[in-house]
Amino acid sequence: MSGRDLRTFITTHRTSDIDNLVVRMKNGLFSQKYKPVDYKQLHALTEEKKKASANIQLKVKKVEQASKTNKEQMLLKQHHQIWWQEHKRLSENRHNVETEIQTFLDEGSLECELLLDMSDFAHKLSKELVIYQTNTVDPVWQLREDLKCRLSEMQCYPSQKSCMEYEFIPVKVLEQVDFVKEQQKTILELLNQEKLALEQELEDCKNKVLIYSFEEKTGLFHEVPSQLLALECPYPDLKSSVLNEFHKFADEYWSKLQEIDQQLNIISRNFGWSEEDHWVYQTVINQYPSDLQSRRTLYLDMLQRHLPHKSRHDLVAHEKAWDQYHFARNQRRALILNWAQARKAFLLKAVMTIAEACAAHETEVMLANNRRKQQEICADLKGKVLQWRAHQEETARLEAAVAVRSKEKEDEREKIQKEKEMIQRAEEKEKVRIYWAEKQRKWQEMEEKDLHRLAELKKLMIEQATKDKERVKFRQELLEKRLMERKELSLQEAHEKEERERRLEALRQQVAIVAEIDPARMMADTVASKAKMGIGTEEECVLQRPLFTLCTYSEEQIISDPRVRVELALREAGLHKSLYAKEILPKIPPLKLPRRDMESTVFKM
């Protein structure tokens, strides 16, 4: 049904059509212009549409399930790859550490008795491991192989005689298996108890080390360095002020460290997770490198697999708390490094200050000694100075006379030199004046050229602006003309469309179905069936002539359609049922586009 067919269902009331409506209502179902509704066919179409919709929905569900499965498999593949990388790295680290420990024990066992004892203990543990494997693991594997062998023999010889021949009694075998299970369970419980005892012992040692490290840390911050105490300062006030400044400096860093430790304790108390869950969280997070793409998605998925009793909200909250804890730990580490650097700088500055004070004190002592020696020397040299002064006065008189004569000669020479300089300066001033006059002339010429060029450019810009205005005006008129032409063209198309609709409506009225009810014709044979039975045909028929005239497409026309060629190529490649084919085939246009009046518009209204 097309959009134009909907107009036949619209009833418009006119005063001139009242008689026609009355006639139609009287005729009812027997009217020649109306056909009876086939409800069975409509129900069948409805059922087909429902089935098609159910099939499409089932396909959508299958696609969603396949997408979910593919996503899960992709995540598992990524987890597997990262797990193998982490396993390889840990294996290499373990091998390197074991090699370093063994090398250290081998090299130091000859010198240190403790390392020799450790080597003996490691050798003893390896022997115990071999004995344990021989006494517990090997019998289990032997029993397993024996059971496999007997089962294979039973499958080969299923008769009762063969069972009696091999003396295979299932009850005794089950009792033996249960006995082995009980032994293994007892051994595993003992090993678990030993493991818990060792973990508790290690935890106690860790607490002792932490307490010792806390005391050592407190002493590190508040203990005055021995280098500072060993310094000798001639000024006691200066040394006491330096010590007070160090205590104040250490108290500031200690208060900051206490604040960070308090934050760490608060964050660790707010975790609310067990040690095992927290260990699993840390282990999973450390497996994924920080530069990995989609790292957070991967480790959250792995955490949900390892910790199914924790929701995603709990994991995200714990992740946020752990980031805060890690940030506080980094702050604490940076603060300790800053404290070490600042302490070192303070010690260096204090040593330099005290060294400067010692140098100043030594300088004062040296000056006092020098002053005393100078006074003694002055007393001895006083007489010599008086004698030397008399000789100097006589020498000064003679030198003064010689200096007066030399001064007169020098004044005369300077006067001549000044006259020469005045003449030379006058010549240089004249040259400078000529140079500046020439330069002023050149500047004036350049300014005139620039003004002339500026006037020409302004004239050109005015002409260009006039041309631009004319061009804009022309473009505006041209645009208005095009708009008017488009408007006239649209009006003409609308008029032609209305005229075409009117002609089509008249044509529909001419070809409307006005067939009458003819039961005899409906039950009679058709021309085609008579032709098949040979009724009414000519006696001499041409065998080469086709029996019926077919109005269809030739093979060349069908093959020339690009849709058929693409479908054949996809079918040959085995891709005609893939999602790519379903997506690309509806987008390929036909060789000749259909007419516009043949396109359905029922879904566009």
Fold topology:
Blueprint: H1 18-27, H2 39-108, H3 113-156, H4 160-166, H5 170-222, H6 226-229, H7 236-269, H8 275-287, H9 295-306, H10 312-510, H11 519-523, H12 527-533, H13 555-559, H14 562-573, H15 579-584
Number of strands: 0
Radius of gyration: 57 Å
Termini separation comes to 13 Å
What is the arithmetic mean of pLDDT? 77
**Helix proportion:** over 70%
What does this structure look like?
80% of the residues lie in helices and 0% in strands. With 605 residues, the protein is mainly α. Mean pLDDT is 77; it is low at 1-11 and 160-166.
Write out key terms for the chains shown.
605 residues, disordered N terminus
Give a brief rundown of this model.
The protein is 80% helix and 0% strand.
